[in-house]
Hints:
By secondary structure, the protein is of the alpha+beta class. The chain has 2 domains: about 25-135, CATH 2.40.50; about 140-215, CATH 2.40.50.140. It contains 4 helices and 12 strands. The strands form 3 sheets. A 5-stranded antiparallel sheet has the order 3-2-1-4-5, with no helix packed on it. A 5-stranded antiparallel sheet has the order 10-9-8-11-12, with no helix packed on it. A two-stranded antiparallel sheet has the order 6-7. The relative contact order is 0.12. The chain binds zinc ion (ZN). The site of zinc ion has 8 residues, from helix 3.
Amino acid sequence: MNRLYDSLQIWFASTHSLSNSLKMTITAYGIVEDLTLTEKNYQKLTIAVNSPFKTELLKFNLWDNSLLREDNAGSAVEKGAGFKLEYHYKDQYLCLDKLTGMEIVNCPVCYSTLPALPDNVQHTDCLGCRTLPVEEHKTRINKPMTLISVKIKDYTYSTGYRLELQARDDPAPSYTVVFPNSPFYQLMKDLAVGVECHIIGWRSGKLINVIDFNTC
Ligand SMILES: [Zn+2]
C-alpha cells in the first residue's frame, strides 16, 4: 500500500512539474490601447492585436512594473506605441512575459498587426491572408454613417444596443450591436437618431464589426 502511495506521489510530482514546464508562450504584435494604474496599485495594460479581419483587446494585470520599464521594453509603454508581446495563459488569465518595442504595420488586406519591414516594404507573407479562403474575407469600412435607429435589446448573455446605420453611398442599412464590454458602450446612452458617426470596422453582409466609433 505504501509503495503504491509512494509511486503515486512520484507520478503526481513528475506530471505536475511537467505541466509547469510546458508553459505555452504566444507571440503577437500590437498597439498599446490603454495603461492605467488601478486603485489596488497594479497596472492594467490593454493591447490591441489585429488578427485577420478582427481586432482583439488583450488585457494584462501587472503587479510587477519591471516589464514596462523603457530600458526593458525598448520604448515607452504608452498609448499608440507598437510592441511585440510574448505571453502565456495561466488558467484563463493572460500573463505577460516580455514586451519589445518595434514599429507595427497592418497587412493591407486583412489588417493583421505585423512587424514593419525595412524600407517600407509591404508584407506578402501574412498568415491571415494566406490561410483564410477568399470567400471568408471581409470588407474594411472607414466612413461616416448616419444613425437611423438605436434600440436596447436582450441578447443571449447580456443586453446590447442595436444600432442601424446608413452610409451615403449605400441605400441598404447596416447594423451593429454594442455590448457592455465594448469600449464605446459609454457613448451609447447619449446617441440620438440622425447623428453622423464615423465608423471603422469590418462588414460581412449587413453586420458591421465596429473597431472604432466616433460621433462627428
Ligand atoms: Zn493579411
